[in-house]
Amino acid sequence: MKKILVAVDYSENAQNALNYAFEIARIAGAELYLIHAFYPIMSPPAAHSAADVTQALEEGKGRSLLEFAEQTRQNLTIESGEAGRFSGVTIKAFAKMGGSYEKILEAIDRYTIDLVVMGMQGGEAVSQALLGSTTISVMQKSRVPVLAVPSGLTFNQFATIVFAINLSKIQARADLRFVSDFVKTFKANLQVLHLYRNETQQQTFDATYPLQLLTEQFKEIPYTFNFDVKENVAQGIQDFIRTEKADLLVLIPQKHTMLERLLDKSVTGRITAHPQVPLLALPPATLHPQVTNPESMVTQGQL
Fold first, then answer.
1. DSSP, residue by residue, 158-182
2. Spatial contact of 3 and 91, defined as CB atoms under 8 Å apart
3. Residue ranges of domains in the chain, CATH in brackets
4. Considering the entire predicted model, what is its pTM?
5. How far is it, in rounded angstroms, from Cα 190 to Cα 169?
6. Which of 48, 153, 191, 269 sees the fewest Cβ atoms within 10 Å?
7. Dihedral of the CA atoms 92, 97, 102, 107 (nearest 10)?
8. What residue ranges are annotated as transmembrane (predicted)?
């Protein structure tokens, strides 16, 4: 994890996400890439070409974004009381005219980003409205992991990470190196959670093969397998997070349906309650790397 992209719209949520990203970059030794997407307030004067005006706007807003990042670095350093705490974090800032969703995805490819950090609103429940349509869209389409940080949440290390996964969807070519490397970087303990919807699933599903695959991929990190029967998967995840006092929840939202289920109040999608935890969404292709078109993949079972 060498390059972290942070989407900045100058809201309180974005500011908090940037604060969080600074800490992650400091520990991981990663560079910070900041992206600000915007639309011009008015059309360019007739004497100037649209391209020239766009370039001037992007350069000007890019400089402002870099100043914003440097001010954030200074503020965080003062708050920490540790001189030079973030001095090793390299910052690059870019402003692009266009929609946030499109420009974030473009930046991921252009700058070979390893992780995207975005903000989300606070509240007891993480509903779709609270998470934000842009964040959800990026999670569904990004080829790299996306970390959504609840507003007001201060970074406090990742001691315990919960990885909620449907073992029946793991294939031989599944690639979970990001999870393993992330756990090693933060010296965390990984709790792998598989939930059955009913006892029939529990009795008929043979987890031997997927457990062997995970054991091989997680051989360099401390981990524990956890199984339970919960008709309401979202509630089961919430309960487990609370019991384990988790600092991070990792999911693989294979398609739109999964996020809808987990984030919809009608199915008790309160997956991060008191205290809230960040949500790390892995790319859909994590479990199906041989599939090139995520849209053609099936939804991830009970999750």
1. -SEEEEE--GGG--TT---HHHHHH
2. no
3. 3-150 (3.40.50.620), 160-296 (3.40.50.620)
4. 0.85
5. 19
6. 48
7. -20
8. none
